[in-house]
Amino acid sequence: MERLQKVIAHSGLASRRKAEELIVEGRVKVNGKVVKELGVKIGPNDKVEVNEVPLTKEVPVYFLLYKPRGVISAATDDKNRKVVTDFFPEINERIYPVGRLDYDTSGLLLLTNDGEFANILMHPKHEVDKVYVAKLKGIPLRENLRKLEKGIVLEDGKTAPAKTKVLSIDKKKQTAIVEIAIHEGKNRQVRRMLEAIGHPVLKLKRERYGFLTLNGLSAGESRELTPHEVKQLRALAATGQKK
Fold it and tell me: N or C: the chain end with fewer CB closer than 10 Å?
């Protein structure tokens, strides 16, 4: 027996939080009857409908994509721009990205049809590190980077403490390469953090997500996560332990 919202999330239809909203709104039926209470448990033979459509449980799949620049982190786009799911033409499951990378940002992006898994990883309280490498306009002072390490106030609130490291500087071109690690997922967060200390981002790439890296992949290439990696990610999110 499993909780109804968990079954909906595992179907790939929605995250567990969205599934709970669907239930409360009376849009879910079990064996033909509307269920509005959270926590109801169902068995494998119970028939679930969401918005009058029978729920079919997909086998969960998990992928790691090296997202190129100039691609939308979404399953579809109303402007017909290239989206990350375009790199998986042979996948029948309804996969979608875990979080997002900006249009102009490249790097590591996870995709899945497991709504619960995605929701766990995206929640900031679970503190899964995301490591970016940014090329900046100007050479940042140590004291300014320290502001990011303490948390900096943006228009949508104060950020959690980040980790920063200067990888290289080019005094002639007045640019710097900086590594920054965060565990939140605010919209355009890394770019906004660096702009806030006076150093606009010229180029940005996510190089690591938890313990996962882009090793062996070129832009536009992907691979399926191993069962062990999926298990490790769940454990990492559950403990908040950074690796």
Answer: N
Domains belonging to the chain, first-starting first, are: 2-54 (3.10.290.10), 62-124+211-239 (3.30.70.580), 129-209 (3.30.70.1560)
pLDDT beyond 80 at 10 = no
Spatial separation of the C-alpha atoms in residues 100 and 72, rounded to whole Å: 8
Report which of 132, 131, 130, 185 is spatially closest to residue 159, judged by C-alpha positions.
185
pLDDT in tens, 120-138: 888 767 778 999 999 999 9
* Helix or strand run (H / E) with residue 21: helix 16-24
Q: Is the pLDDT of residue 211 over 60?
A: yes
| Whole-angstrom Cα Rg for the chain | 20
User: Is the pLDDT assigned to residue 232 strictly greater than 60?
Assistant: yes
Nearest Cα to Cα of residue 233 among 68, 94, 119: 119
CA 51 from centroid of its chain's CA atoms:
26
DSSP character at residue 147: H
What positions carry a catalytic annotation?
Answer: 102
- Residue 140 burial (CB count, 10 A): 21
Contacts of 195 (CB under 8 A, 6+ apart): 201
| Helix, coil or strand: residue 107 | strand
pLDDT(243) > 70: no
pLDDT at residue 242, rounded to an integer:
44
Tokens 């027996």, residue? 1
Cβ(44)–Cβ(32) below 8 Å: no
